[in-house]
Amino acid sequence: MNNNYDNLPAVLNANQLATALGISRAGAYQLLNTGTFPTLRIGKRLLVPKDKLVEWIEQNTGGSHVGDKETTAPIPSVAPDGEQPFALTRNDSIPFTEEKNKSSGGMTVIPMPKLMEIRFPVKPAVIEGLLPVGTYLLAGAPKVGKSFFVLQMAYRVSTGGTFLDCPVHPGTVLYLALEDTLDRLQKRLVQMTEQDSPDLILSVLADTLDENLLAQLEGFLMDYPDTVLVIIDTLQRVRGRTPDSCSYAADYDTLAKLKTFADAHGITLVLVHHTRKESAEDVFHTISGTNGLMGAADGALILHKDRRTGADAVLDVTGRDQPDMRLHLCFDPACLCWELVERETAPYQEPPDPLLEAISRLVTAEYPEWHGTATELAQQLQSGGFTPNWIVRRLNAKHDILLQKYSIRYRTRRSKEGKTLLLRWVGVR
Question: Comparing C-alpha atoms, which of 171, 74, 76 is closest to residue 125?
Fold first, then answer.
């Protein structure tokens, strides 16, 4: 952390911001895209004036020094129309200093109490209830409509609104249509929509993983730092040659490389892939290749039909960060779009949390702010058997739900007197 403001340049880019705050470059880009951060946009460049940065730091640390351990970036409050914004930015809470974990036998380890102290950044889903942040396979038989599906997804995410009746978190989308041509993409988009999207970027050429693919993607994200979704159609086109392409290790290694990249940059990666001809009791076992692909991925979507010539299809979804679901779809050839017919499984609803429920009764539109120690909060809540340590652990893990469901922003501030909790009501429930 650079605490000497005088040594900072008058205007900082992402790399300089990362150095000044002691965060990663990906974290700096995410911070620059936070709605309440004083970002200066010049073309595609994201910059921050030094004086605005210093002012922002002092506002969000209560005038404390930049090196305070618990300093975090603010969460966007309400939209211009007064409504709570649907989607949070990718780093609503950014620890300015990373935990210095111990090295044990060559491994980086962290004790559980230290882990419980960390408030990790909020990672909003690209498509709520359907596509969280992470690396996902979209598999299906040849000509089942996978490319139409991901092109429609790419366009909807780039423009905002909904996809299959699910709200999206808009941002720049890169679609690598490696089995298509530009003229074919043009014809499909003309039929799909009447409105262009400047945030949908397309390409029909890319290197393989054995060549320069990850460097190409890195360069793209530097040019388009507000990217939220990258689609590679197809996985086979970027795999390159492996000594044993049918081995679990080879499949796992391929996905692991792509997942590591996506995780490092906080984006969602969708890899279009094929299914085998052989049927299976579990539809996810029909994905072509070994279980190494599913083992490394965060989840998968399977698009399948009973009849190849039929318009009806089923989308099965599974993942680490969401419950299994099944959607019934219908393809409209007039606009080349998939439409939701029926949701066989209801969207997952987070069960009520007693602590968050109690806080929602404490912090309201009438009493929009509370601050104090964890001990004082436990005393004020009175019931529920909440201990100070349990409260802090719970809030660190569920601060995103507190904001999304109850419109209450949670932050902490450390001073010589100790740690203070700040709770602020930020919008309409």
Answer: 171
